[in-house]
Fold this protein.
Amino acid sequence: MGSSAPRNGSGNGSGDAAASADAAAPTVVGKPLGLRDQVAATIGAGRRLITAHVDLAKAEAGEIAGEVGRLVGLMALALGLLFMVGIMLTLGLLLFLGEWLFGSIGWGVLLGTILLIDLAIVAVLLALAVPGRRIAAAFGTAAVLGIVAALVLGLDLTHRAWEAAATQVLPNIAAGERPRNLAVLSLAAIGAVVGLIGGLRRGGAWGGLVLGAVLGAIVGLVTSAAIAPTIGAAIGVLTWLIAWPTLAGIGVMRTGIDGEAFKQRFMPDQTIELTKETIEWVRARTPLAPKFEASGRAAFDIPARLRREPAKIAGSAAGAAFLLLGGPGRVVRGIRKAIFGKNAETPKSMLPDEVEKTLKGLGADGEKIRGTLEREFAQFLEEKAPERRDRDLGAAAGGLLANVLRPLTIRAGRQLAEQLLNPDGATLGEALRRARGGAATSAKPDDASRNGAKRDSSGSAG
């Protein structure tokens, strides 16, 4: 009869949990691992742990990048929708105003389009440094023309005037056609005459004649028609929107654009003026600046000095190059090789064939062979010690001489270089005169400008 294990409050037996834990724990079969195997297993476990953490970090980074991309995409979608809302509100407002004020959505589309074009033209003119007062004056004049056109057409004054005139001039034509015929014919004739005069001035008489006649006929057709008040108001607004950029453009064509003022907007004038003042201030308080400039010019004016003293300059340059490039050291090494001979090169194999044969003939005991070699080599060194001391003494003397002469040669090379670059009196004087002449030349325009400013200020004060 089996015994049941006690259970906890959750209904799971603790004995079952312990049994499952024991089953999950790894069991070691056979002899235990050695130290090397344990270290290798520990290192492998550490690598797997680090790899697991890196993989987890990569997975989380990918998820975070996905969330960031999703956030950016949704924000871009929201901004795009808001932009579309702004466009729809603008277009809807224009269409609503056209329907509400003028009785047709078409008027809203037409007037809204022309209004946006006008605003674009005004923005360009402002960017080109056109004064705002000119654009405002053109706006006011266009508004006056639009109001006049709206009142005249909205109150049907032109139709009534043409109708009254046609009754007196063309009584035999039908009443409905008399105003239109009179307006088209009379205004076409007037426009043709005006266009002909303008064409003769510009060299295109026939073109001006035809254009003036067509425009006059169109104006006569519009003014002779019976127009409703809403249509008259819409035509007045259209007149205003067309006249505004037209008048502004005519004003710009007459006066032009101030290119200098436009360029000055992109020039750091204050920085340039302050830099010039600082340079002049430094020159005025540095009297040795021309001398330093003349010394530099004279020092590096090698062609002039070479023409004046060719032997001295060539000798100084050759001596400086010989010393700075290590010529004395090479001379010392060459003399030492000539006296003591060339150093023997290190052979590829330190043991000749005879030595190898001799070593093999000493037997197979390595320790005995090593002891024999040590004793024989020590005896050989004792026999050759006097000869080696004499030979090393010469090498040490040569090295000591080279070490002593090295600072001296470097110092001599520097002195030769300084002598080469040291300006002589004639070259320095010539360069100093040129530097002072350049400074005086640069100062003359400033003095002239200051004197001119003083004369202008005294004249204005007078």
About this structure: The chain has a mean pLDDT of 75. The radius of gyration is 54 Å. Residues 276-341+364-440 form one domain. DSSP finds 17 helices and no strands in the chain.
